[in-house]
Amino acid sequence: MRTRLAGCMVRRVRVEVLSQLPARTDTRIPVGMTAEHLEEQIFAAARRMIR
Length: 51
Description:
This protein is mainly α. The protein has helices at about 1-5, 15, 35-50. The chain contains three helices and no strands.
């Protein structure tokens, strides 16, 4: 497949295309924890404090 596509595919490195990319956008989506997950996090934090 690589051989067949070699004639029509152009491979470019990040440095070459960086100026053509849009600015990076980060989106934070808050997600609530289940009671079980929250409990696990509390115990993990307690274990880190004990060490």
